[in-house]
Prior knowledge:
Layout (H helix, E strand, L loop, with lengths): L1 H6 L1 H39 L2 H4 L1 E5 L7 H7 L2 H14 L12 E8 L15 E7 L2 H4 E6 L14 E7 H7 L6 E4 L7 E11 L5 H4 L8 E4 L8 E9 L17 E6 L11 H13 L1 H9 L5 E3 L2 H44 L1 H9 L4 H30 L6 H25 L19 H24 L5 H4 L1 H16 L1 H10 L7 H10 L6 H36 L3 E5 L8 H6 L4 E15 L6 E6 L1 H11 L28 E5 L1 H7 L4 E4 L5 E9 L12 E4 L12 E6 L4 H21 L12 E5 H7 L4 H45 L4 H34 L6 H4 L15 H29 L2 H8 L1
Parallel strand pairs: 3-9, 5-7, 14-18, 15-17
Antiparallel strand pairs: 1-10, 1-11, 2-3, 2-10, 4-7, 5-9, 6-7, 8-9, 12-19, 12-20, 13-14, 13-16, 13-19, 15-18, 16-17
Helix pairs in contact: 2-11, 2-13, 2-14, 2-26, 5-10, 9-10, 9-11, 11-14, 11-20, 11-26, 13-14, 15-17, 17-20, 17-27, 18-19, 19-27, 20-25, 20-26, 20-27, 20-29, 26-29, 26-30, 27-29
Amino acid sequence: MRTRLRAFAGTSLALALLVAVTVALAAAYPRAVDRYGDAGLRRAVEEALPDLTTVRVTAPPAGWTSLEEAEAALRPDALAAAQAEVLGAARTPLVPDREQSTYGVRSTVVPLDEWLPRPSDVPAEMVVAVQQDLDSHARVTEGRMPRTDGPVTAATERVEAVVTEDTARALRIEVGSVIHLPEVEGTPLAVRISGIVVPRSPEGAYWSTLPVLRAPALSQVPGSIPVDHYWLGGLLLAPDAGPALLGVRTEDELTRYWHLAPELDALRAHDLDRLSSAVAALEAGPGAQHLRTAVDQNMETQTGLDEVLAGHARLRAGVLPLLLLAAVGAGALAVIVLAMAGAVTAERRRAELALLRARGASLPRLALRLLAETAVVAVPAGGLGLAAALFLLPGARTASAVAAAVAVTLLACLALPLRAAAAHRTVRLHEVREDHATARPSRRRTVAELTVLVIAVAAVLALRRQGSGSTGLVAAAPVLTGVVTALLLVRLHPLPLRALSRATARARGPVVPLSLAHAARASGLAVLPLLALIVALTTAAFGGSVLAGVTAARDQASLLAVGADARVESASGVLPRGLADRVRRLPGVRDAVEAGVAYEARPLQDTEPVPLAGVDPDAYADLSRRTGLGPFDAADLRAAATGTAGDADSGDDRPLPALASPGLAERYGTAPAPVRLPDGSTVTVRIVTVRDRTPAVIGDEFLVVDRAGLPGDAARATTLLLTGEGLDGKALRAAARDAAGASDAEGASDAEGTAGAEDSETTVRLRAEEHARNVGSPLQSGAERLYAAAVLAGAGYAVLALLLTVLRTAPEHRALLARLRTMGMTRAQGRRLLVLTALPQALPAAVGGVLAGWAGIRLTAPGIDLTAVALTSSSAVDTVALRADPLSLTVPALVVLLLAVGVPAGQAWWTSRRGSAPELRLGDR
Length: 925
């Protein structure tokens, strides 16, 4: 065996490299899916904010039989003991973040002090909290941390507290300020501010579960008309000052609380079901019952973590089946190439193996010998590939990667023995000529092909009816489509070969007849290259169409969210003066269309507001055609088309022609409809055109009219819609700020101060930014990368299949060209001969791959939804269907044809450089 490995070192190294790369890819796939899934789950929990994802356990002041018992329940020791029970009730895989989890006592109080700010003459409210471990989570910037002098009871009249910098700035609190809290009986509780602190981790759960402790909020008084506001701030008392709150008159119940923050690094997507069960058990299951028994029978648990987990589970359920489709396609190609590698080796050693069989070697012994020879190379290479996958992709499950590596290594070891055992079942004295053009398929082969056809039809039907996540067989539907196409081509391939052979039998020149004769005598081994090429083209077409569909969906969603390539909109209702001219001069801006959008326009026969946009018909019609959002004829929208003067004071009440959404057109019909504008004026419109979407208004309900027919104030521009390429968001925002500043300065110097004195704050939204925002989860971006990797891996295996085909036929082609050169064939004729010999297989493979890809996409598209991969849940596009991408269908097929022509031409050139003598001598031996 050592001698053979040294003699065929190149072949052994090539096999080791193939096995190592294939094992690395197979082991990397499940680990990459795990890593992307874990990152997506952590991102979902992180973006949901701690006030939603923290498990909040609370206990009301009930069940206390005496004041001393109530005071004892609010002291740090009792709260800490309850916190230990809460942390212990969380079961794996819900791991608490002990650093960010906290506990304490809180209540909402209306202070008696009138010096606190009152925006609408409504007194401020303060959330007074005794939150433990404050020293570790805050840094003192002024003063010191609060402390107490001796034991605190309900009768204590004076305590200390700290506030954050944001709270001190908004409520004008300083170190030494005293805030008085009303008592139920007796003297108010005086709270002296001992210091001002800054949170060390303001976004963490310690501060963000109760955000008011970190920063005050300007709240609205419920039911007030007009709306009244008041400040809601937070006071942080000393850790042992909880009993002092027992005598305070509060707006709500005095509440003990325990906040359990989940540890982000411990979240694993494959444990999603168990994680949801752990949250449910703590919220309303055995964990909650244990807390009621061990701590307080009135304990309640609330959290929004279960909703976050359910949302990620829906995303995961939509993405993983699509990833499985890509993995099955690339995996099928890898299996075919490994089988081809074993078949090529068996073909090149056919004479040696036949000799061993003739000398009495049994079939099992021969197979075991070949298995040992292959295992010596494949097993270390597989271990190296597995080690590479584990090293490059840490932090994921190992069992699935090891299983994939073992399966690939075992297949690589068995490919050669099984192929050799099948080829040498019978001891032959001479080789039987194989003629592909005249061979007749056996009944066994027919039954096998029909079985594959039935399985493929069943998989496609299941995919169309149940979706891509039903069964593992369904994931193989696109690959099975390519397999069926390959088997059909193998069946039909002899027919054109026979017809061409008869047609060219008397043709002048030897090249065409010889190439057809050589293709007709191709062995059955050529089925594997054909199958590999068609499956590769099918996988490339499917994967490319998925990626193209995802990109197109994000483009459409971003366009619907912006209305153009960029959107500049005024928050006050009027764009700054000169903004349009400034923006038009920026690089990349092709055109800027002004529109006046009134979102509070109200038809008199309806109670709901309807967005009404006033536009210039010609410019807006051109914008609609460019974006594809409701294109229309500008002449239909011109006010002059109906004779409308457009002067609100002229008394001309003839209706303005309007472009409307289908819902409004159905409600109002084509009759004139008066609409009250936000400034109190009224305009009459008549719907003449109906479109589903329009650039100026983001939404499904809208009216679009000619600005020339609107009253003066209503015709002012509020929105600027830009088209162009490479728009710079920073430059657009800078131009908006500069225009706003110039407009404010002009308004300040204007004696009348009308338009310029208004707030001209503007918002800028870019289509490119919205496109990037549609990738909301690492699981989505990871799915795209894995699909692209699957397509690239499929392309690599397709090229490798062509190279293996060349290696199999290289000795035969060299000998053929050498013999034909002795008969007078020129080098150019030799090159044409090899090219024409390859075309009868490459051309059907290319055409068949295109047809198989197109048919597979058309057949499986009803069961495949790309929405989960392409968009976020808040996107304007409801569903994303799979459609065939022309480039993904044609480009890989053309590459296959170029390689099929280029490789034989290069082989003929190299053979001609070597000369014919070595091949002729080899044939004489």
